[in-house]
Structure formats: structure tokens, C-alpha cells
Amino acid sequence: MKQAVIAPEGRELQQLRRVAQLFAAQLTPAQALEIAWVYPEFAPGMCYETGTYLRRGVNALGDPQLYQVTLDHLSAADRPPESAPELYEPLGLARDGTPLWSRPAGDLDGYQPGDVVHWAGRPYRCLVPDCLTCPEADPVGWTGL
Q1: Is residue 14 part of a domain?
Q2: Pick from 43, 56, 45: which is nearest to 89 by CA?
Q3: If you ran DSSP here, which 8-state letter would residue 132 be given?
Q4: pLDDT at 4
């Protein structure tokens, strides 16, 4: 079988992405949420080791939903992360499925009016556009529910 030839630029980008993934595998769950797009997308037929971070779909805020593997296994199409809690732990979600507050990735990724998050065990609704601060630091930008 003939393998595809990868242009040098493509090979360099693949290697750079792999370096980022190797580094990102060492982060805490809170840190991992800040760079969610770095992690590989869930795929069936893969051998996943405990502790591996994966992304699948998006959360209520439109950010990538991250999962951490909780048991070594071979993934299957009929057992995706959202339906196999014994194999994957969703990161960044409260028990009711509401996203936990996390620091936005940049100035263009702030919370918007109406966004609901959990902070310090309580749900809050964002009141201002492009909010980059947590409810505790910005009581004007958030209201408790």
C-alpha cells in the first residue's frame, strides 16, 4: 500500500502538534480546559489509557467538551464519552451539566450576557458582554441564580 507523501511544512506542523499534545497530557484538568483544542478528538478503535484527555462535541458555551479517560480500554463507536461514564469523566461540568467557570482563552473568548456557569458551588448568569472575570471578582458582571 502506498503512503501519502506529506509536504515538509505539513510534517513540521504535525510534529509541532504532537509536541503540544505531549506537553498538554501533563496538565491538570483545570489547565487542560484552557487549551481544549489541542487535545485529540474521540475516535472509535483507539486504545486509550487512564488519564488521557479527549475532546468530543461542545459544551453549552460552544467550547470543546473535554473528557478524561478513567479506565484503560479500546474505544467503540457505540460507547462515546457522553454515554460511558465508567470510561470517561467530563471536565468542566457541574453535576447538572452546566459548565464550570474557567478563564477565557483570550479577549475574544469572554462570556456573553445570558451565559450560565458554576462558580464556587453556585450557578451564575453573565450580565455583560465579553466578561473575562469570575463572579467573585466581578459582582457587577454576574448575578447568582
Answers
A1: no
A2: 56
A3: -
A4: 53
